[in-house]
Amino acid sequence: MRGGLHGPNVITVGESVLLLVAVSGGEAVHLARWHEPTGPGRGAVPDHYLAGGDSEREAVQRRYDVEALRQPIWEHTTMCGRVWALMVGGDGGTLSRYREAAFAPTCRRCLTLMDRLFPAPAVDRRVPVVAQVVCDVVREHGYAEVRQVPGDQLAVLRKEIRSLIRQQTGHAVQTLVHGDLLLVVCDPLRDAEAEMRAAAEAVEAVLFGDQPLPAARPERPWVVTWTAWDLG
Fold it and tell me: What are the pLDDT digits (tens) for 144-159?
């Protein structure tokens, strides 16, 4: 920036430059896109924040490149569709006493849309193999647990599992994520009565002494571990 001054408070995602902005009546930090050159955009900060003689505005003018902030190169609405008020202060400090500096968005909708700007990760060779194993397990038990799934493979694995189960059974499936654990449930394929009978029999055997407590955790055939399918 000119003379060592700070410019717009932006982040770069893939090939997109996004401005951190605030809206009226909320504390969340939103994102505004670079404006396409098909019409006039808007500046990062309204003129009344960049002119005047009070101490707050003078501080902004000392720290920021005012010409860069005035350039009409930003969309008029945030990525989530709201009209925004002004840029959120960054390395050059706050622009208003009512708003702290920020360096990352917090609006959930803007974050979701921002994620789509990242390049898609390479699909691991294990995805189709693990998906078929999970499909087989779900067809037998009605549910499955997939453990130690890398975060960048979760979305594509969930999609592949849902597609396979629908193709092979005609049923929809629900997938839930908690950390690196993926839960897959297909209610039409579950035998709820059999599960309840098995649980009741196990409790009865322990309570009435028909069967001692197991020394080790019994095998759980519905658990699939991602790392067990290393294809080299």
Answer: 999 999 988 999 999 9
The three-class DSSP label of residue 56 is helix
Q: Is 3.30.110 the CATH classification of the domain at 126-229? A: yes
- Tell me which long-range contacts 32-37 makes (C-beta under 8 A, separation of at least 24): 32/74, 32/75, 32/77, 32/78, 32/79, 32/84, 33/74, 33/75, 33/79, 34/73, 34/74, 34/75, 35/72, 35/73, 35/74, 35/75, 35/76
Integer Rg of the chain from CA: 27
Give the C-alpha separation, 147 to 153, whole Å. Answer: 12
How do 143-147 and 10-13 pair as beta strands? Answer: unpaired
- Please report how the helices 126-141 and 154-169 are oriented relative to each other, as an axis angle in degrees rounded to 10: 50
93 in helix, strand or coil?
Answer: strand
Q: Which of 132, 131, 42, 37 is nearest to 85 (CA)?
A: 42
Domain ranges of the chain: 2-115, 126-229
Residue 193 has pLDDT above 90, yes or no: no
Q: Are 7 and 45 in contact, with CB atoms under 8 Å apart?
A: no
